[in-house]
Amino acid sequence: MDRSTNGLFEKVDFDEHSSVQIYLNNEPKDFPMHWHTAMEIIMPLENTFAVSMNNMAYSIQVGEILFIPPGELHEIYAP
Fold it and tell me: Is the full-model pTM beyond 0.70?
């Protein structure tokens, strides 16, 4: 999977013959404000993540799921 940004837009290149990407992020890395054409699903396996979306702040706990619609500006803060 290739992820690159152009301003606030994040381009995600899906694997051939697929429209789904599963990305296991195990790095304590923030993702600055961005948007993309794909829906994003965040589900922490450990720790808590803070997400800013549509001028709202969310604290996502282990076992919770946050759906980010396509085209929605969002930012993710790692624990």
Answer: yes
